[in-house]
Automatic annotation (TrEMBL):
Sample GO molecular function, one term: aspartic-type endopeptidase activity
Name used for this protein in its record: rhizopuspepsin
Source species: Podila minutissima
Cysteine pairings via disulfide bonds: C123-C128, C329-C366
InterPro entries on file: Aspartic_peptidase_A1, Aspartic_peptidase_AS, PEPTIDASE_A1, Peptidase_aspartic_dom_sf
Gene: PEP1_1
Basic and acidic residues compositional bias, start-end: 22-32
SUPFAM superfamilies per UniProt: Acid proteases
EC number in record: 3.4.23.21
Record-level GO BP terms: proteolysis
Similarity-based family: Belongs to the peptidase A1 family.
Length: 407
């Protein structure tokens, strides 16, 4: 068809414009008519995006404005994603645009996983029906992959379906991205306000081998001014839970105090680092461990020994066989701190944040924001992150920049 041929022509022109300019010299043959000498423009700079814009204006019937919108928008920049704080800092989600025209889904940004997924319009489970379902048939830029995909999480929730790819835009940063379209979701997702997850881990823990993460693709496309994602997760207790954001490609120095301490990643997969010590009010507990900084986990989960040591210093704490560690809800007024040392610097979690949720049984006890059961690989979840600004830096030597939040 004519439109298909014109699209092919446009792609060919794009490829040509990205190549170096050619010095065309006249051929001295009078029988060929008059030749016009061309002069090489030494100041020429490649600009495929400008050529696409020019073609889009010249041939509007091609629909190039939509087909190549991810190229148009990808000058190195930063993308700001406002967050909604769910409940008592239970989880945080932001809006992500997918497809052409854009369909908006609410996703939980998770440094503890790497897949990007949400329900497909073909999913008919109860959990899927409770959320926005992506209709791939309505996106002109969707490409079917066909590979099967499945993922499960530490809370026994799971999802499965097929892979596809489309233009994914986060705070204005747009790239073509492989996505998981769920055709089945476990019941745990039914009550979640978000539609799916946006994995920010490394590609080594993608559910399907060989799939690149959003960060991989955005960095490769030169879409980010810096190869970072900065997380500011607010606290209901400290500021009403407002103003949260993920910042792709930039760091907001107004969100933290002092300077960032960059802690090297010890193993790529999760954002894993060495936790050199844990302390209570500055007193070392003599514990060290590998750990991960995980935006997708609500609590701080440590080894049993350090959990016992921390709660042993809080009068009235107890380890309930059915509910884990409990603390008196009155610790909300405490000025004490638990700290975790990384990169030679200690970062605080106020004991006040250990009174995470009232048990509601009249006992005056609260479910603790720090729990045990994670020997060998501690998890610094949102109870840590809502007190510390974290910059996930995906350079050739990845690291996490950490500094106390500026409330």
């Amino acid at each position: 068809m004519k439109i298909t041929a014109l699209v092919s022509l446009a792609v060919a022109v794009l490829a040509f414009t990205e190549a170096s300019p050619i010095d065309r010299r006249p051929r001295p043959d009078s029988n060929k008519g008059h030749s016009v000498p061309l002069t090489r423009n030494k100041n020429y700079k490649h600009n495929g995006r400008a050529q696409i814009a020019k073609l889009a204006a010249r041939y509007p019937q091609l629909g190039l404005e939509e087909r190549f919108s991810h190229l148009r928008n990808n000058a190195a920049s930063s993308g700001h994603v406002p967050l909604t704080d769910v409940g008592n800092d239970l989880e945080y989600y932001g809006n992500v645009s997918v497809g052409t025209p854009a369909q908006v889904v609410k996703l939980d940004f998770d440094t503890g996983s790497s897949d990007i997924w949400f329900p497909s319009s073909t999913c008919t489970t109860t959990a899927c029906k409770a959320h926005t379902r992506f209709n791939s048939a309505k996106s002109s830029t969707f490409q079917n992959d066909g590979r099967r995909w499945t993922i499960s999480y530490g809370d026994s929730s799971s999802a499965s379906g097929t892979l596809g790819s489309d233009i994914v835009s986060v705070g204005g940063i747009s790239v073509r991205q492989t996505i998981g379209l769920a055709t089945k979701e476990s019941s745990q997702f039914g009550s979640s306000p978000e539609d799916g997850l946006f994995g920010l881990g490394f590609n080594t823990i993608e559910s399907v081998s060989g799939v690149k993460t959003f960060l991989d693709n955005a960095i490769a496309a030169g879409a980010l001014a810096q190869p970072v994602v900065s997380a500011y997760l607010p606290s209901v207790r400290r500021n009403g839970g407002v103003g949260g954001e993920y910042l792709f490609g930039a760091i907001d120095s107004t969100k933290y105090t002092g300077s960032l301490t960059y802690v090297p990643v010890t193993q790529k997969g999760y954002w894993q680092v060495l936790i050199q010590d844990a302390a209570f009010n500055g007193q070392s507990l003599g514990q060290t461990s590998q750990g991960i900084v995980d935006t997708g986990t609500t609590l701080v989960i440590v080894g049993d020994a350090v959990a016992k040591s921390i709660h042993g210093k809080i009068s009235g704490s107890k380890n309930d066989p059915n509910n884990g560690w409990l603390v008196p809800c009155s610790v909300k007024s405490s000025t004490a701190n638990v700290s975790f040392k990384m990169g030679g610097v200690s970062f605080n979690v106020p004991v006040a944040d250990l009174a995470y949720e009232d048990m509601g049984d009249g006992s005056g006890n609260c479910f603790s924001g720090i729990q045990g059961g994670q020997d060998g690989l501690w998890i610094l979840g949102d109870v840590f992150l809502k007190n510390n600004y974290c910059v996930f830096s995906q350079t050739s030597s990845p690291s996490i920049g950490i500094a106390p939040l500026n409330y």
